[in-house]
Amino acid sequence: MACESEGDTAAGGSVIRIRTILVPTDFSSHADRALDYAIELAKVFDSRIHLVHAYHLPVQVALPDQVIVPTEFWEQVRDAALARLQPSLARLNAQGIACDAELLPEAAAPAIVEAARRSGADLIVMGTRGLTGVKHVVLGSVAERVVRLAPCPVLTLREGS
To answer: Taking the model in full, what pTM does it have?
Structure first.
């Protein structure tokens, strides 16, 4: 069996190039597994990894006592997220994988989709909890929304699969 040269496939099309892999993280074991997978893909394709963490905290618009969430609170949330991203960035750097990170104070699914557009991601690799039944109906699925709206292919990994 002959090997295919770059730019050729058995069907006559071109080989997919994966230059940028976007990896959303919520710092869960599911997200860690997705990052592990993305690292292996990045090594094969010589890709860069763009880590994204979206931190949307819903705030009631009209609070009864007109309580305002202080700016310092949002800064602390952002700083805590940045601190949690640092070990992943250090790990990627130690393995020689080009990487960067983005913190987005938005709802996860639209933030991930927009980050993929901005970064020119060729692939999104993300974990999913695989919720079913009532939990899925009530909580929804970030991964499902990303799959429907993403500008590029999305690889979802369920823990344990």
So the answer is: 0.81
